[in-house]
Write a structure and sequence with these properties.
The complex is a heterodimer. Chain A is an all-alpha fold. Chain A has 15 helices and no strands. Chain A has a single domain (about 15-285), classed as ABC transporter involved in vitamin B12 uptake, BtuC (Orthogonal Bundle), CATH 1.10.3470. In chain A, about 70% of the residues lie in helices and about 0% in strands. Chain B has a domain at about 1-115 and about 140-220. In chain B, helix 1 packs across helix 10. The longest helix of chain B is centred in the first third of the chain and has 27 residues, at about 1-30. The radius of gyration of chain B is 19 Å and the shape is globular. The N and C termini of chain B lie far apart (about 40 Å). The chains are: A mainly alpha, B mainly alpha. The interface of A and B includes residues 120, 124 and 247 of A.
Chain lengths: ~325, ~290
C-alpha cells in the first residue's frame, strides 16, 4: 500500500515557490493596509472556489447551487456568534460542521440523473434555503439581513479592527490550512478514485470503486469547506444577508474557477484574485452595468477557449 | 375554481415559454440558460412597440414572435452552433454569460423599472360564473385569452410534430441525430429552424406574459428557474411532458401562493426536488429514445 501511495503523494509535496507566495500573501494586508478588506474578500472567495473545485473539477458534478453551503455556513456562524458564543474559531468549526451535515444530506440528490437534473437539484436547494431564510425572518432577519453580530477576538488576543488587517490574516490562515488539507485529499488514493469516477463512471464502477459513497463523501467535504468560507464571510463582516444564497454567487464562483482552471486547486485561488480585482476595477468604472462585462467575458472565454485566451502567443497559430 | 383557472392560465404561459427550451435541450443536448432572455426580448419588443409607436396589441404579438425568432436564428448561426459539442459546463457558463449581458443591456437601454402593459379595453374585463355556489369561477378576460392562444398553439405544435414531414424529421433528430443525419435529414437545418421557432415562442410567451408575470430586466434570471423546472420535470422527448409539467407547476404555484402565502415559492421547489429525486429523468419519459 505504501508503495502505491508514494507516487500519488509526490505531487502534493510542497514546491520551493509555495512558501514564498504564501508569505507574500500573508504580508499583503500589512503592506497595503488600505486594501486589507479586499484581500480578505479574495481569501474567502478563493476558499469557496477551492471548495467548488473539489466538486466540479475533481468529481465532475456540475453544480449551480454551491452558494447553499456558503450561505448555510454564514448563517450558522452568524447565529452562533450572536446567541451562543462569540469566539470566531468555535464559530468557524460550527459553521463548517453544519454545512458538512447539510452537504451529506444533499448528496443523496446528486447521485442520480443527468447533468441537467443535477443542475436543477443543486439550484433548487439554494432556492429552498433562500426561501427559508427569507421566511423565518424572526431568526435570520429576513431580507434585512442578520445584524448585530459581534465577534470576539481571534484566539482571545487579536481583535477585529476596522481596517480589516486581522480579518484578512485570519481568513488567509484558514485558507492556507484548508487548502493544504484539500490538496492532501485530492492526491490521496481517495482523490485518485474521485478522478476515476469523473473521467468514466462506468469503468470506475467496474474496477470496484464505490461511486455513490465516494461522491457523497466528497460532496460533504466540499460543502464543509464552502461552509467555512461562509462562516469567515459572516465573521469578518459581522453580517449575513440573503444574498449569500443568490444565484449570482454560484455563477460567480463557477466563473472564478473557470478563469483559474478547473481540476487544479491553485486555479481557484488565482481565479479569485483575478476575478476580484477585475470586479473592483470594472465596477468602479460602471457600477451598474458590470454584469454586462462579466457576461461578455464569460461568452468570450467559452468561445475562444480558456487555454487560448490566456496564452496570447497561440493566437496566431493554427488550432 | 378561480385558483385552478388562474393556475391553468399561468401553466399554459409557462409551457409556451419553455417548450422551445425543451426541444433544444432534447435535440442537441444543449443546456441553454439564456432562454429567458428571448422571452424578455419579446416582452420588451411588445411594450416598446405599444408605447412608443402605438401599435395595437394584436399586431404586436406576431411581431414579438417574428422578432425573437429572427434573433434566435441569427444567434444560433453565430454563437450557439460552436457550443453544441462542448461539455455541459461550458454551455452553462456561456448561456449564463449571455443572460447576464441581456439583463445589463436591457437595463441600460430601457431602464430598470418594471414595465407596465396597456391592455386593450376588450381584454380588461372579468366574467363571474356561478357566483354564490362553491364552484364560483372568476375569469379575467385576459387570462381567458392567454389560455385560448396557448391552447391553439399547443394543438398547432402537436399537429406539426406528429403529422407533418418536418415534425417527423424533428422527432427523428431528437431520437438519434447521427442516424437521422445518415438517413439524409439535414439535422443542422432542422435544428436551426427549431431553435428559431422555440425562441420565437419564448418571445411570444414573454409578450403575452408581460402583464401577468411582470417585466423588468431581471426577468431571464427570475424565470429561468421555472423554465428549467418545466423542462427537467417534463422530460425533453415529447411536448406533452412539458405541457403537463407546466400545468402542474402553474396550478401548484398559484395555489401555493394563495393558500400558504408565507411559504411562497418554497412549495414549488420542494415539489421539484421530490419529483427529480424520484424520477431523475423527468416524470413523463418515453421509452426507447436516446
Amino acid at each position: 500500500m505504501a508503495n502505491l501511495q508514494m507516487p500519488l503523494l509526490e505531487k502534493s509535496a510542497i514546491q520551493w515557490w509555495e512558501p514564498v507566495v504564501w508569505l507574500l500573501a500573508f504580508s499583503a494586508p500589512w503592506a497595503f493596509p488600505h486594501h486589507a478588506l479586499i484581500i480578505n474578500e479574495i481569501a474567502i472567495v478563493a476558499l469557496f472556489a477551492v471548495s467548488l473545485d473539489l466538486v466540479l473539477g475533481y468529481s465532475g458534478i456540475v453544480s449551480l447551487g454551491h452558494a447553499s453551503f456558503l450561505g448555510f455556513g454564514a448563517y450558522t456562524a452568524a447565529l452562533f456568534a450572536k446567541w451562543i458564543h462569540p469566539d470566531p474559531l468555535l464559530g468557524l468549526v460550527v459553521g463548517t460542521a453544519a454545512a458538512s451535515v447539510l452537504g451529506a444530506l444533499c448528496s443523496a440528490s446528486i447521485l442520480r440523473g443527468s447533468d441537467l437534473t443535477r443542475l436543477m437539484v443543486t439550484l433548487g436547494m439554494a432556492l429552498i434555503l433562500f426561501e427559508l431564510a427569507n421566511k423565518f425572518d424572526g431568526l435570520t432577519g429576513g431580507s434585512d439581513g442578520l445584524q448585530g453580530v459581534v465577534m470576539g477576538p481571534v484566539l482571545g488576543r487579536f481583535e477585529f479592527d476596522l481596517m480589516g488587517q486581522v480579518a484578512a490574516s485570519y481568513s488567509m490562515a484558514v485558507l492556507l490550512v484548508l487548502f493544504f488539507l484539500a490538496r492532501r485529499l485530492v492526491h490521496s488514493p481517495f482523490g485518485a478514485t474521485l478522478m476515476a469516477v469523473r473521467d468514466n463512471r462506468l469503468r470506475a464502477m467496474a474496477i470496484g470503486v464505490p461511486v455513490s459513497a465516494r461522491l457523497a463523501v466528497v460532496y460533504a467535504i466540499a460543502a464543509g469547506v464552502a461552509g467555512a468560507a461562509g462562516a469567515l464571510m459572516a465573521q469578518t463582516t459581522g453580517f449575513a444577508s440573503l444574498d449569500v444564497f443568490a444565484l449570482e454567487r454560484s455563477a460567480d464562483v463557477m466563473l472564478i474557477l473557470v478563469i483559474g482552471g478547473v481540476g487544479w486547486l491553485y486555479g481557484g485561488v488565482i481565479g479569485a484574485v483575478v476575478f476580484k480585482l477585475m470586479h473592483d476595477v470594472i465596477s468602479s468604472i460602471t457600477p451598474q452595468y458590470w454584469t454586462f462585462w462579466m457576461g461578455l467575458f464569460l461568452v468570450v472565454l467559452v468561445m475562444v477557449g480558456r487555454e487560448r485566451l490566456f496564452k496570447p502567443w497561440t493566437w496566431m497559430g493554427r488550432t | 375554481m378561480t385558483i385552478l383557472f388562474d393556475g391553468i392560465a399561468y401553466g399554459m404561459l409557462l409551457f409556451i415559454l419553455a417548450v422551445g427550451l425543451s426541444v433544444t435541450m432534447g435535440l442537441m443536448n444543449f443546456i441553454n440558460l439564456a432562454h429567458g432572455a428571448f422571452a424578455m426580448v419579446g416582452g420588451y419588443l411588445t411594450v416598446v412597440l405599444m408605447q412608443r409607436f402605438e401599435v395595437p396589441f394584436l399586431v404586436c404579438l406576431p411581431l414579438a414572435f417574428a422578432g425573437t425568432a429572427l434573433l434566435g436564428a441569427v444567434l444560433e448561426r453565430t454563437l450557439y452552433r460552436p457550443m453544441y459539442r462542448k461539455p455541459h459546463l461550458d454551455q452553462v457558463l456561456f448561456s449564463i454569460g449571455l443572460a447576464f449581458m441581456a439583463v445589463a443591456s436591457v437595463d441600460y437601454f430601457v431602464g430598470s423599472q418594471q414595465q407596465i402593459m396597456q391592455l386593450p379595453e376588450w381584454l380588461k374585463g372579468r366574467t363571474e360564473l356561478g357566483t354564490g355556489t362553491p364552484w364560483e369561477l372568476g375569469m379575467g378576460h385576459y387570462r381567458l385569452f392567454i389560455i385560448a392562444v396557448c391552447a391553439a398553439l399547443t394543438v398547432g405544435l402537436q399537429y406539426v410534430l406528429s403529422a407533418t414531414r418536418f415534425g417527423s424529421r424533428l422527432r427523428a433528430s431528437v431520437d438519434d441525430p447521427r442516424v437521422a443525419a445518415g438517413m439524409g435529414i439535414n439535422v443542422n437545418m432542422v435544428f436551426a429552424m427549431t431553435f428559431a421557432v422555440g425562441s420565437g415562442l419564448a418571445g411570444l410567451g414573454g409578450a403575452l406574459g408581460a402583464e401577468v408575470l411582470g417585466l423588468d430586466p431581471t426577468f431571464p434570471l427570475k424565470f429561468m428557474v421555472y423554465f428549467l423546472i418545466v423542462v427537467a420535470v417534463g422530460g425533453t422527448s415529447s411536448i406533452t411532458g412539458p405541457l403537463l409539467a407546466a400545468l402542474l407547476l402553474g396550478v401548484a404555484d398559484v395555489a401555493g401562493k394563495y393558500y400558504l402565502p408565507k411559504l411562497g415559492a418554497f412549495i414549488v421547489y420542494c415539489l421539484m426536488l421530490a419529483i427529480l429525486m424520484w424520477r431523475p429523468q423527468g416524470l413523463f419519459v418515453r421509452q426507447g429514445g436516446k
